[in-house]
Design goal:
β15 and β16 (about 185-190) form a beta hairpin. The protein folds into 5 domains: about 20-125, Sandwich (Immunoglobulin-like); about 130-205; about 215-520, no CATH class; about 525-630, Macroglobulin (MG2) domain (Immunoglobulin-like, Sandwich); about 655-795. With about 800 residues, the protein is mainly β. Helices cover about 5% and strands about 50% of the residues. Strands 46, 47, 48, 49, 50, 51, 52, 53, 54 and 55 form a 10-stranded antiparallel β-sheet that branches. Strands 11, 18, 21, 23, 24, 25, 26, 29 and 30 form a 9-stranded antiparallel β-sheet that branches. Strands 19, 20, 22, 27, 28, 31, 32, 33 and 34 form a 9-stranded antiparallel β-sheet that branches.
């Protein structure tokens, strides 16, 4: 065995930050290369104390390391040493470090058997005049500040008791020279029997030291990860080397019941739910570094630059998932958390940095009856430059550079959705979390606050319902999407952290990172028929579906459309039935098919289009329901003849009324409805209907009525064939119509004191034009001009069709 031992210190200053402030597993454990080897193979190197402070050039300290195997047993191995900045702090072959410059810093590494240690942090600083240094034996007791649990920032007062009979003067700076967690300015001192009670006021780093310069780029690779909540439920902290799985073992994680009935579990939920997790195969990868820069070069000047940042690739390689069974309403989350604890500034503050790391899976929403299976596998993280950068007197700047590393495959499955009207709403994701935390120790008490929070990972959202649910709820449509969420922001106590290190709050920090980034979405788009009205056995209706190109491709799965399905329902049917499936061929986004209405389709016909994706979920409504109104003209010319074998009455008939006043001479109104029926002998062109009017109209000649005359007849039921005609042109969408009503007749006028007068005349002439409204079933309009004021309204009338023929498929339970 080779162990370098401490020779004791010749200087007065001793150790100012010791291992006591580090959490389990810090100790500078060696990086990769260990594990699973011979008992004589070095697995890691452990410093006895990972930091030291010196106060003048030429001052020396002796470092010591233990070389241990994978079982934690100390073994014999030759150790070599090196310094990151030998021009400021040197180290010799025995591990003795020496201050070269009045102020400076360096990281000291030890190496044995091909394994490199985590660094020991060494700094040379200049103290303020009159500083009182206390050895550990001088510190009798330390009382924690009365903060009520909140962070004891600069200005907080607390009591210590020191040995001796001489009280330090008010205003003296006191620093523990070894491992005791004590520092501050004396505000009062009182001599008690055998000891002195001293009340200290906490100071920020610039107020404690005259000059210092720390400039470290810390490779996080050699550090172990301390797991905070292992899945086994054990409460003690355990270690997992950074490049090994975070989870203990590769077997399936046991089932959890939420709430956990008092048993510790890495899962939580807002309501009761039954959860299962897939094997948590997780390992931290990449090449992250922690940059720690803090300086003050002149006691008369404010602090120089402060920079604390995570830099480089930092990601997880994971296979993780979560299953919720028997439904969930609320939210559930499983997180495996750990941290990389690091010594920070070796100054008399006992401040360290912790880099939290973890993996989480979360589901929230409403899941009825069915079970869901959510998960991801692959790489998930980012290339980072995130933290804070301060250069007083300028305000601090938030660093928020993050380039996504997302090479993962999503998994999402739902159990059978056969229940009528079922609807599932969920939001689920797997994420990698990290950041920067600061731990402060005073006596036996410690406080932790976060400077920076980072959460990065994919989030899958879904809203699923059966076909029936989507059809019945008109604005609702099933959908899902996948987004890469990168949340970077200041921690809850970032101002406290900045004030601790530079003596001011640093101003308002801003982080300009664009957080959400949508990666993929479920197939969606638009669709429409090219006609809203049609004539059977004559018109062809084209159904065109256009999916957005972005929605046809899903992350790493590629082209995500299996087919497009069309469902149809006639107004006489209770349910939708499957009409046609259009297979999809990559990279197809446009789909088109035709429908040839038959006489049995007379009336309203509703269509709904669904996309079928490759992910095993429900069908997804592309857009809302569209309708086509069918009116018929059968072959043979009889407008009221029975239609084809389907049994529907085949005709197109518009029925309604008109009334008004023409040039103050004629008042007219329909007596019996005007009924427009097809003229089978008149062909105006493809997809254009020609119709003739029937009915009766009452006409009053106002000029003769005002003279006391009577005009007969008053009611007319014969229309001019040359001028009374309606056309409906379905080559447009919506269809266009025009009509004209002309009445010519012989009338007799009888006036008081005059012989009757009989003569032929044009009794009435009105016209209208416009677009069919209300899904192609209504003509309505009028005019208000010097020639007259009148209005009209005609409604498409279709006799009730016969029931659908036997064997027609209806949409119901079990329909895909």
């Amino acid at each position: 065995m080779h162990t370098t031992t401490s020779r004791g210190t010749t200087g007065r200053w001793g150790w100012l930050v010791g291992a006591a402030v580090l959490l389990a597993g810090c100790g500078g454990g060696g990086g990769g290369g260990g594990g699973g080897g011979s008992d004589n193979q070095v697995a890691r190197l452990e410093f006895d104390r990972p930091s030291a402070l010196m106060t003048a050039p030429g001052e020396e300290r002796q470092l010591s390391v233990r070389t241990v195997n994978a079982s934690g047993e100390q073994i014999d191995a030759a150790v070599t040493w090196n310094s990151s900045r030998p021009e400021q702090v040197s180290v010799d072959a025995s591990g003795k470090v020496r201050a070269v410059t009045p102020i400076g810093s360096a990281m000291i590494f030890a190496e044995a058997g091909g394994v490199r240690s985590a660094p020991a942090f060494i700094a040379t600083v200049e103290l303020k005049p009159g500083t009182l240094l206390l050895r550990d034996i001088d510190v009798v007791q330390v009382a924690p500040p009365p903060t009520g649990g909140s962070f004891p920032g600069p200005g907080t007062q607390y009591d210590i008791w020191i040995a001796g009979a001489q009280a330090p003067a008010v205003g003296t700076i006191v620093i523990a020279a070894e491992t005791a967690k004590v520092s501050g300015r004396v505000v009062e001192a009182e001599v008690e029997p055998n000891r002195v009670r001293v009340r200290l006021e906490r100071l920020a780093v610039p107020d404690l030291l005259a000059r210092y310069d720390v400039n470290w780029v810390i490779d996080l690779a050699p550090y172990d990860i301390v797991i905070d909540s292992p899945p086994s439920g054990a409460r003690q902290q355990t270690q997992g080397v950074r490049n090994r799985p975070l989870a203990a073992g590769a077997g399936a994680v046991p089932e959890w019941k939420i709430p956990a009935n008092g048993e510790e579990s890495p899962c939580s939920a807002s309501v009761e739910a039954k959860l299962k997790a897939k094997p948590l195969q997780v390992k931290i990868a990449g090449s992250p570094t922690l940059e720690a820069i803090s300086s003050k070069f002149d006691d008369s000047l404010p602090p120089g630059r402060l920079r604390v940042a995570l830099v480089g690739d930092f990601y997880i390689e994971t296979s993780v998932g979560l299953t919720a069974e028997a439904g969930i309403e609320g939210e559930a989350k499983c997180e495996l958390k750990g941290h990389i604890p690091l010594p920070f500034l070796p100054v008399p503050l006992n401040v360290i940095l912790k880099v939290p790391v973890g993996i989480g899976v979360a589901v929230k929403g409403t899941v009825e009856i069915v079970s869901i299976d959510i998960g991801f596998s692959g790489k998930n993280g980012a290339n980072l430059e995130m933290g804070i950068d301060c250069a007083p007197p300028q305000p601090c700047v938030g660093l928020d550079k993050a380039e996504r590393i997302n090479d993962f495959t999503p998994n999402m499955k739902l159990s059978s959705l056969e229940a009528q009207g079922l609807k599932v709403e969920l939001e689920a994701g797997a994420y990698f979390l990290t950041g920067i935390d600061v731990v402060l120790g005073i006596g036996d008490a410690s406080w932790q606050f976060n400077l920076l929070d980072v959460k990065v990972g994919p989030k899958q959202k879904g809203d699923f319902g059966t076909i029936k649910r989507q059809i019945d709820d008109i604005p609702y449509a099933s959908k899902y999407d996948l987004a890469f969420v990168l949340e970077v922001g200041p921690g809850t106590a970032i101002k406290d952290g900045i004030k601790e290190l530079i003596g001011s709050e640093g101003g308002e920090l801003s982080f300009g990172l664009d957080i959400p980034f949508k990666i993929s979405e479920s197939p969606r788009g638009t669709w429409a028929p090219d006609k809203t009205t049609a004539i059977p056995n004559r018109d062809t209706v084209k159904l065109a579906i256009d999916l957005t190109e972005f929605s046809t491709k899903y992350w790493l799965l590629g082209y995500n459309v299996e087919s497009v399905e069309i469902y149809k329902k006639h107004e006489g049917e209770m349910n939708f039935s499957h009409y046609r499936t259009l297979p999809a061929v990559e990279p197809q986004a446009h789909f088109e098919t035709t429908w040839d209405p038959a006489p049995a389709d007379a009336g309203r016909n509703d269509f709904v289009v669904f996309a079928v994706s490759k992910l095993p979920v429900v069908r997804l409504e592309v857009a809302s329901m569209k309708s086509v109104q069918v009116g018929c003209i059968p072959a043979g010319g009889n407008a009221r003849a029975q239609g084809a074998a389907g049994g529907g009455v085949c005709k197109e008939e518009w029925i309604g009324s008109a009334s008004g006043v023409l040039t103050d001479l004629v008042d007219f109104t329909t007596v019996t409805p005007l009924q427009w029926e097809p003229d089978p002998l008149l062909q105006l062109g493809p997809n254009i209907s020609a119709l003739r009017a029937k009915g009766s109209v009452k006409v009053t000649f106002l000029v003769y009525k005002n003279l006391g005359c009577t005009v007969t007849p008053e009611v007319f039921d014969s229309f001019d064939p040359a001028t009374t005609l309606m056309s409906v042109d379905r080559n447009f969408n919506p269809a266009k119509y025009t009509f004209n009503v002309g009445i010519s007749s012989e009338i007799t006028i009888r006036c008081p004191g005059a012989d009757p007068l009989t003569f032929p005349t044009r009794v009435l002439n009105i016209q209208g034009a416009g677009d069919l409204t209300e899904q192609g079933t209504v003509m309505a309009g009028g005019t208000n001009s010097p020639q007259g004021q009148y209005s009209y309204r005609f409604q498409l009338k279709v006799d009730e069709p016969a029931p659908p023929p036997p064997g027609t498929a209806a949409l119901g339970r079990g329909t895909p």
